[in-house]
Fold each of these.
Amino acid sequence: MEKAKKRIGILTSGGDAPGMNAAVRAVVRSALYHGMEVYGIRDGFVGLKSDDVSPLDAGSVGDIIHRGGTILGTARLPEFATDENVRQECYATLKKHRIDGLVVCGGDGSFRGANVLQHESGVNAIGLPGTIDNDLAYTDYTIGFDTAINTCMENINKLRDTMASHGRVSVVEVMGRDCGDLAVYAGIAAGSDAILLPEMRWNDQKWLRYIVTKLSQSFGRGKKYGIIVMAEGIHMQPGMGHFTVDYIASWLNHNQGSVGHKVDARGSVIGHVQRGGSPSSADRILAARMGECAVDALREGKSNLCVGIRNNKIITVDITKAVSMKKKVSKHLISLADILSH
Ligand code: F6P
């Protein structure tokens, strides 16, 4: 009797990220190449719960490599962590479709879900890091981060045009949740005067003094406008809810004397455009390399691993270990940003 083909599932979960489609394509095409069957699960763990599952062939992932978002859809299902019945419904779907391996593309919440799933259901699970936040400590880069940096940079370039024309100061917020990577990379790429990172854990007064110092330096060397990049994680911190880009801009406008120069500041939030757009070549290639690695791991019967990249080498790390690692923003990049904006 012919042996049943190995059958794997793939889902995308959490906030979408450019390059998720390239990752889905890489997983599907690599798996099919190696004689496996692949099922796509819609809307992350929500589709597992509701049995929204269908087979994917090579053609079904054609014409998606350049598209932002995720063709599979995505969602957050917090009940997966808290409700045993919800999890059992998800496992029943995997069993019904005879799925014995699962690729989960998402952030740390999705990885925690994959971890529990493989322990309780016995289905091998492999995580692919898909998030613009770059907040997973075990990997140098996540899929979507490079594109999001470029989106921030392009938006800040545009702000720079109008700030320079009017001699204004732009205080601009970027995403990243409690991780400052997007802010520091985008801030350096956009040549900002100051970058505000949640990892510093400063209070509002300290941040205002820092902004004043940096703007005074820039105006002092003849610059006529300013760009301040703030990570959203700062105003997500306890007691810092008021410290928004509009608050900072208004404070600067009312405290011109402290900068020693006329200041006309405006606040801008780049927002969800950071999650969209055609993935950069770096994200597409990262997704291709990581997707192939996930399939190889499942072919070898491995489980509870997440795929990452360290020093340009694709690696796998135990998910339990990966989600417990604490992400740190690069001290070198922080000091470099400070030096270059001097
Ligand atoms: O995790 C990705 C991310 O875009 C964060 O940077 C941001 O804080 C969050 O998702 C926004 O989530 P939502 O799409 O639910 O508004």
Note: The radius of gyration is 22 Å.
Amino acid sequence: MKKKNPNNRKIISVGQIVSWLIVFLVAVWLFNKPAVKETTLGYSEFKQKVAAAEVSDLTVAPGEISGTYKNSEGKLVPFTTVRMEDPNLVQELSTAKVKFKAQPDRSWVGNVLFNLLWIVLLIGLWWFIFIRPQRSDGKSAMNFARSKAKLQDPSQQTVTFKDVAGCDEAKEELQDVIKFLKNPKKFQKLGGKLPKGVLLYGAPGTGKTLLAKAVAGEAGVSFFSASASEFVEMFVGVGAARVRDLFDQAKKNAPAIIFIDELDAVGRRRFAGIGGGHDEREQTLNQLLIELDGFESKQGIILMASTNRPDVLDPALIRPGRFDRHVSVPAPDLKGREEILHVHAKKVKLSDDVDLKQVAKGTPGFVGADLANVINEAAILAARADKEAVEKSDLDEAVERVLAGPQKKSRIISKHEQQIIAAHESGHTIVARLTNHSDPVHKVTIIPRGQALGYTLQLPLEDKFLTSKSELLDKLCILLAGRAAEEIVFGEITSGASDDLNKTMAYARKMVMELGMSEKLGPIALPNGEDSEVFLGRDLSRHNTLSEELARTIDEEILHLIKTSYDRAKQIIISHREAFDKLVATLLEKEVVEASEIDEILGLKPVVVEEQPQPSPTDSVKPEPKAPKATKPEAQQADLFE
Ligand code: ADP
Ligand code: ZN
């Protein structure tokens, strides 16, 4: 369903019209500048005025005489008159005592040249504005609304899934897309839901572009790629025109994949930030949404995009029917890194002393692009030394070079920081495993993901709709265990626990103020101040309804909950120090430790730990209030302790 868009060319002419207008106005101004209101006198009239001595300021040019004369009211009026063959003129002028000056002759050649100068100037200006910038691009003036997308022909498509390593889950998720592109009709017949937009998200350099290319390669279709930042141009409307053009091109070449890199450059939430929207970006985003809605996946086009900030995207973009498939492309783990190294090592000759597994071990935090870089650097080093093959020493040196690269410092984690993170996560893990009312620990890792430097994943065994006080107390304890572990091991605390602390505060406040789980206060629920800024129960909206004393008790109860939970977490870690240290070491070695191994380290049978003195048997299970917007049963969700 090709919609011919009449606006397509308009955008081009808008730019042109504006520039022509400028040229026109300049020209008008230049030509009109000498325009002064003059009267034209007949020659005989002029002679009469000369005789009456009414003229002054005469300029006698070869073809024209100009000057001023006094009119009947005595005002000076500028005039011109055609100069006639009049040998007596000079005589008469001196008789009448009229001052005059003569202007030298300007030949007709001079006149023509003078006028030509203006024309050349204007043409030059036009060339400077329109032709020159395009020339250097190899494009003509008409082309600046064309998309700069690069087309890769299916026949030249050489990237396949074999070239992408360490992201098997992402590949698995993209199988559908390939099946569909290979044979859209068959896919539909089998009742497959047609994919339309696929969003790949993950840190830079994890291979998102590579994956998209590989999908095109596997399916044998054309691949159009464009960077979203190319769409955000100086002139409003150009970006939108480019988006249109990109889709038009792809439709002509269907089946095809359109890949948009750095989608967040245009896809950021609209109306965000101070000062309102950004017109051009917004128009471009709107056009993208229109195109997304306007094409049918039946046409055999799949839109893919990559971003490392899925959280800032406009919600409209990720709505069903648009970019509704989200595929995570995480930083590779140890095994993944080894595989990626193997992929890139194929292109170079390795000496026998090289063990890529060892290299993978020494490169925590490296993404695919870093690893490709390591192999490349090593090959260069080996070549420089005239070696037959890349040796271990070259790889070691290359790792260091990539590590020291200025832009990587923030992403790649130092050994010392890794130790802190391992201790922090082990704290979460061990307390989660050793408390009775918490969900089973699924795995723990120190591979950074998103904002988190590491995480402990707990998965619930079954759906739950009620959360008990014991469960919440355990949760507080687990949340605080990361910070507790840091303090125990290093005697020093870091900023790594800030998210944990925020969550702890939220839970503790909820327990005291909404769920009536404080002993001192009893079963009270205070009006929910969800939308207002609440701070230790002392928020403004509640000032009127809470007595000073009640507010103070609330604060005390919240602080008490947090304090006792922190002490309990510390106590659990200290009393299992040996197992804890073992877990830290294992985590540092393997980066990911699964549930079974955690149990092994801890001696399988979970150790029962004393509850806090707080809960008495009768109040340990307290259903949450059954209000319609009652808090989501938190225990039901997977828990990530960062
Ligand atoms: P992104 O688009 O996620 O920023 P790219 O796909 O541009 O990353 O990756 C840049 C380069 O790094 C690729 O061309 C490839 O050589 C290498 N690379 C990245 N990830 C991988 C991977 N998973 N397997 C193999 N090579 C990779
Ligand atoms: Zn934590």
Note: The two ends are 48 Å apart (CA to CA).
